[in-house]
Amino acid sequence: xxxxxxxxxxxxxxxxxxxxxxxxxxxxxxxxxxxxxxxxxxxxxxxxxxxxxxxxxxxxxxxxxxxxxxxxxxxxxxxxxxxxxxxxxxxxxxxxxxxxxxxxxxxxxxxxxxxxxxxxxxxxxxxxxxxxxxxxxxxxxxxxxxxxxxxxxxxxxxxxxxxxxxxxxxxxxxxxxxxxxxxxxxxxxxxxxxxxxxxxxxxxxxxxxxxxxxxxxxxxxxxxxxxxxxxxxxxxxxxxxxxxxxxxxxxxxxxxxxxxxxxxxxxxxxxxxxxxx
Length: 277
Ligand SMILES: [Zn+2]
What we know:
With about 280 residues, the protein is an alpha+beta fold. It has helices at about 5-15, 20-25, 35-40, 55-60, 90-105, 130-140, 150-155, 190-200, 240-250, 255-260, and strands at about 80, 110, 115-120, 160-165, 170, 175-180, 180-185, 215-220, 225-230. Helices cover about 35% and strands about 15% of the residues.
């Protein structure tokens, strides 16, 4: 089951847009090693893949891709969960699937395919497993960390999970399962997915999602302002980044996923993660 984006999450996203990326960049006293890395990485100029039909999209998801650098800001070495490099991985994944089912969250089935997206989230130190709900709950309330300039930027950029059993940070993964596991990418929460997609397009000097004010919808309902964000992403433009596509799809409600894959989401006025009914 996909959870609809909450107004709190939209507010978290919109608060952070008041920051001009350039001035934010300048106000950081020093660049982290990771930021240097990102600056030095050439932009992937591969041709976008047109997802003309669902088969092409399935192939795209299940075919191995170039590994991507970890998303988020962090100043020490953080272990990334690696399904394909872990002993006993099938059993661990089965435990996570079961925990997700019991909590009725995660285990996202992509419509018209056999593909499921499943979080692979196990503490590298003590082996404690985290369900989809555990991840979402942590990202909604991460341990405060002064390397982030404010709480909103931590919501957007702190992609780590802290294991409270043994005090270890790690990055969870998202496994792409087509009958059997085929691929894995970094797991991002909804707010981090938006942030990473916006950063990807800003690199190409394009403002999308909350970076483009005209995408922010507002209306009054029972005296309260209800907000939503128009989804102005052409999925094919994201094709250099399997991580971003997988996470975006994981949070898109089933009835809007096909629009997104076919590229008609903009024409149909779909909103991000389906919050605007
Ligand atoms: Zn642990």
